[in-house]
Description:
By secondary structure, this protein is of the alpha/beta class. It has two domains: 52-123, Alpha-Beta Plaits (2-Layer Sandwich), CATH 3.30.70.250; 137-424, Aminopeptidase (3-Layer(aba) Sandwich), CATH 3.40.630. The chain has 13 helices and 14 strands. Helix 11 links the parallel strand 12 (328-331) and strand 13 (363-366). Helix 6 packs parallel to helix 7. The protein is globular, with a radius of gyration of 20 Å. 53% of the residues are buried.
Amino acid sequence: MKKILLPLLLTVAPALQSFAAEAPSSYEQLLKHITTPPAAGDAVYPAARASASQAAGLYWVTIKAADKAERTSLLEQGFDIIEVDRAKGTVSGIAGQELMDHLSSKSFSVLSRRPLAEHAAAVSKDFPAADAVYHNYKETTDLLRDLAARNSDIASLFSIGKTLEGRDIWCLRVNSSAKGEAPSSKPGAFFLGNIHAREHLADEVPLLFAAWLMDHRNDADVKKYISTLDIYIVPMGNPDGVEYDIKNGSYQYFRKNLAKNSDGSRGVDLNRNFDSWWCEAGASTYPGSDTYCGPKAFSEPESQHIRDFMLARRNIRTHISYHSYASEILYPYGGSDSDVPNAKDKQAFIKHAAEMGKLTGYEPLKSSEMYIATGDSCDWAYDATGALSFTFELEGRGFYPGAAIVKGAVERNIKAAVYLLSVTDDPYRGL
């Protein structure tokens, strides 16, 4: 497995509060917007370092972790692994003094640490000047509404539920014969993005895929998929966390939702909150941890809504949940070393992951190869619904890889998404 690349820490620039008066809505317009540098005087957020108060007391830490078992144990102690260097047997991430003291008491070997602001200054010199191409919650919502309105014969928009702070989690549905929440017997595909707040590229990929589908609706193959499939796209599964992460024009490195925890900390890791070996290996019971599993499985409205959405749509046969960053395509299980029990499903997972890996350049592998992480949404989705569920760890050198990466990542992942549509009617064809 390739080494996960070093992130560009604490240099940031969130999306604009809104695009220009005539916001781009077609896929080609969006690509042009992505690849056109901002004109002098345009209102854009500058690349911003985190404030001293944000970085105070935080360190970039490298810890000895020779194998998957040690990496899994670190997750359970509350350390959010951001990088893995398997060749050196180390992991790196962000930690405060309390967590470092805790890890030392558990006999973990901290190899190095330096203040987070210092680390950021050393690695962020070539970060792009602006990230205005990324879509915040309002922009994402506005674009989805526009796509649905412009293509009302085949597209509809509905909310799968509200977040803790009352934001709707919007779903664009593409179906030539059923709208909104009406049932359909057509084979379904479900694309979910951005349930980890700081992974903003995971919103752009499914959002621009939706725009691409609408622009290419009359292409022979796309037209066939629209007429024969039931396609669901939820670009932003954690709107509260996303908005928190980009508040005040500076990224917060925030991963979770905005639950108020018993110890006064904020947030539950939604990708540890699903009822799949919940809070066993690779999840933390410490509320302040980035991998905190919550007080119980499905304790959070966001994970509840995703659960209820999938359980109500048993026609869904294929599913991608987008994350970043590692350039990997993962398939179940992530919460267990065991293979999926159905041999035919295992064969399908391996085949489709490999094919999508060729289209994206990402590495296909079973999710638990890196470490065990329980409470995973795709493990739950596969076990509970039978949908072939994949986690895409998108490309990049960090959680905030800049504007230049978006176009290539979107184009590569559209190819993979279209491939998944091509097998959704029969994922076992050709096995």
